[in-house]
Structure formats: C-alpha cells, structure tokens
Amino acid sequence: LLIKEGIMKRSVFLLIAVITAFLLSGCRFVRIEEEERKPVAYTVVEKSDIPEELSRIMEEKKEKEFQLSYETGEDLYLVKGYGRQMSGGYSIQVEELGESGNGLFFITRLLGPKDLSEAGVPSYPSIVIKTRRQKKPVTFREGSRKSEKVSEKGD
User: 34: left (phi > 0), else alpha (psi -120 to 50), else beta?
Assistant: First the structure.
C-alpha cells in the first residue's frame, strides 16, 4: 500500500509539472478572424496580362486545385485554380477580398456551367486578381452559396 501511495504522489506531481510547463511555455491559439474585415480594392487580371513567371507556375499546377500568392514590385497577385474539370463553361466568383489586422482573406467560389453543351471538353478554371502588396498572410477560402455576386471571371 505504501508503494502505491508513492507512485500516486509522483504521478500527480508529474501531471502538475506538465500542466504548469504547458501554461508557462507561451503556447496560445491565434484566431485569425478576430476583427471585422475591410474590403480591399483589386482587379481581375486577364490571361494576357499575367506576369510570365506566374503564368508558368500556374501552368505547372493546373491539373490539381491550387492557390498561391505572387509578389512583384508593389503588386500582389492572388491566384485560385480549381484543377481539371470534365467540361468547360465554369466561372469563378470572388465573394470577398478583405483585410483585418491579421491578414488578407480571399474568398472565391467555382460556379458550374450553365450550358451542358460544352461537356466532354476538359477545362482548368482559375482566377488571378491583383491588389497592392502587403506584408500580411493570405487566407484562401471557398465561399458559400448565400453571398451576392461580386465579380466573375470565366475560364
């Protein structure tokens, strides 16, 4: 019985030490969406106006869904690609480009073809937007069906 009490005391002490170490380590959970976001001005970039290096990177990644940010000079390009689709006629809706003190939020949604006559021809829908360069992290998200149209870019 005496041995079991000693093991229990050591176990409790060890548990308290681990909890204290965790609390003192400075670990914390950061919630990125703490603040309300403000709209950020942007333009949708036409395929012919995409910087050459960015266009090459997009071509390499187009088979699968991807997202990336690309900086050049004072500009920041945000790209969302939806990978290979089994038909053409898709468009991409930008639901929001907003900023808070914690970062930029780029929210898009893939809209399916309205006309199924293009079925059978694979496509690789993607969108590129350009805004001013910022030193904030970018969060890419898929939008919801409830929002209003902000802008669309066809494939």
Answer: alpha
CA distance 21 to 117: 63
**How confident is the model over 81-94, as pLDDT tens digits?**
999 998 888 999 99
The amino acid at 123: S
Other beta carbons within 10 Å of 103: 17
DSSP-derived pairing of the beta strands 85-87 and 119-123: antiparallel
Q: Of the given ranges (13-17, 39-43, 59-63, 126-130), which has the lowest mean pLDDT?
A: 13-17
Q: Which pTM value belongs to this model?
A: 0.70
The SS3 of residue 97 is: strand
* Paired strand residues for 75: 72, 132
